[in-house]
Amino acid sequence: HGRNHTHNQIVVRSDNYTTFQLGGCAWIKIPSLQKGKRIAIPLNTTVEPTGTLRLILKDGEVEVHYTIEVAETQNCGKATIGIDKGYTEVFVDSDGEHYGEGLGELLTKHSDNLKKKYQARNKLKAIITKKSHKQKNIIENNLGRKKLNRQNIKVKCQVKDKICQATHKLVNKASLIAAEDLTSPIKSNKFGKNVIRRLSAWTKGVIANALDTISRRRGSSVILVNSAGTMQMDSRYGILLGKRSGDSFHCFDGVVLQADENAARNVLARLHFPTIDRWTLWQKVKSILLKRTERLRLGLLNQDSSCN
After folding, report:
1. Over the stretch 221-240, which tens digit does the pLDDT of each residue have?
2. Are 163 and 206 within 8 A, CB to CB?
3. Is residue 103 scored above 90 in pLDDT?
């Protein structure tokens, strides 16, 4: 059976609360544990919520969540592009345009600060286990989370804002977007250990959610494609020749491409690749690409292929 680990929120049905205006703001009245008594909660807005409510208690304050109807418009661009997730920026598209620059700097600063803080906190916890007479003083004065929680919320808002701005700019350009599964964890050597740690929050769906909701609301389509091997391929021929080094991709003939732009063009090519669908296993993808590579060596590569 399922288990619920939520301890700080409740759901109130639409027929189980009332709203009213008082003192220039909206209030809600919800049932209490005492029969016949209701709890009045002031809101920081004049807009009265409707429908089912979710009340979340955080740091002594109550958040009131409810759903609203979002109007869908058709104000997206007309281009068809592929995108690759970066680190210094949110997206890079197949035309070489970068979106949401500065994301990496923001994540690096916050993640590195958190690493130092948690290392220091772990040292204090080790002291507690060894020196029990210091336990009370350390817990009261050194292991609080109020300031840390405020900093985390602030950075999350900044990251979300940058991601949404980048996504709107992307949708301004494109009506059809080919993308890899942005929620998948990073398993490749594209990033180092520290960068993967910094990207951990980012890879859990923040960008994927923004891309899905904003594109749907503005009439653009996002198609997820199989991204296996797109970072190791030469986008000019669709073959496994060349090597990525940092932000550069060194081709077999000496040409140097921008690595993220090269990957984005490969993602776009997957949109029309007949033998590789989204769920094709990496082993099969690799086999197909190696056959293409061998055909190029033999001078038999079809120049009309969608990967050219």
Report:
1. 999 999 999 999 999 999 99
2. yes
3. no
Residue 60 shares a structural domain with residue 18:
yes
pLDDT of residue 135: 85
What would the DSSP string read from start to end of 21-60? EETTEEEEEEE-SSTT-EEEEE-SSSPPP-SSEEEEEETT
146, 58 contact by CB (below 8 A): no
Overall domain count for the chain? 2
| Contact criterion met (CB below 8 Å) for 214 and 70 | no
% pLDDT > 90, the chain: 54
Span of 39-53, 196-210, 256-270 with lowest mean pLDDT: 196-210
- Show Cβ contacts of residue 262 under 8 Å, excluding neighbours closer than 6 positions: 233, 234, 235, 249
98: helix, strand or coil:
strand
95 assigned to some structural domain? yes
- Residue 70 CA, distance from chain mean position: 21
Strand partners, 28: 19, 41
d(CA 177, CA 166): 14
| Residue with token string 């009245």 | 29
State whether 26 and 130 are in the same domain. Answer: no
The domain in which residue 139 lies consists of: 79-224
Chain centroid to CA 69: how far? 23
Nearest alpha carbon to residue 173 among 275, 272, 82 = 82
Query: Do 26 and 154 reside in the same domain of the chain?
Result: no
Amino acid at position 210, single letter = A
Q: Cα(101)–Cα(103) distance, rounded to whole angstroms?
A: 6
Contact 300, 272 (CB under 8 A): no
Cβ-count burial of 236 within 10 angstroms (0-12 exposed, 13-18 middle, 19+ buried)? middle
Task: Write down the pLDDT at residue 99.
Answer: 95
